[in-house]
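Progress against Task 2.4 (sequence-to-structure conversion) is shown through the following example record, which the project officer requested during the mid-term review.
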Amino acid sequence: MLVNPGFQAAVTFPNGNNPAFGAPYLNYGNGSYIYYHDSNPVPATAVAPNTPQTFNGWTYDGTGGAGVAVNGGAFGTLNGGAGNQFAFLQGSPTISQSFTLATQSLVDLSYIFQGRSNNGGVGVLTATIDGLPVVGLPPLGITQTNGTAGNPNASATFTEQTAVLSGGLHTLQFSFVGAPGDNSAYLDAVTLDATAVPEINPGSATVPFLLIIASLCLLPSRRRKED
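Structure tokens generated for the chain above:
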């Protein structure tokens, strides 16, 4: 349903640095990561710093930086990821993608989330669809930072069920709010599985049938009152 759910689409990771932050990539470094969005590029003349950037299906926006990194590179290691690449979120950015449902459906959202393994990884991730939190999914906080609280190298897979969504266009968005300082998180293997939910048409025979069943259930109580 989603394009490039594991952030594995072919990416050219130039070897070196890009001091001008020129298009199409706002920033990249040492052949292992690319910032697709950076709200504070230096210098800020080559690309509009606060303009959303869309690459390989995903839109990168918000305050801070977001992009794609190679596993085991300068941005650290995601354990149990879906391939050799993952998305990273640094500061308070967003990563989003729109999708279309053919009919009214119940949707299961699944993804892998981890704090950065080789630097600060403290922050809160929130997943929303059409701007509303996914049912049963409060903001997910990560408290590990380089060997302090918990295991800084542990990834977690989350699966949550949404409310029933109507057929048509919807937008899935991940928002990360990192703690003050250099804090980042990893995101990978984002999937949506939809199960169609039949719609009840008020003009169909279904509604009268349900009314008949309801009436029959009430008959015994009415008879007792008459006796």
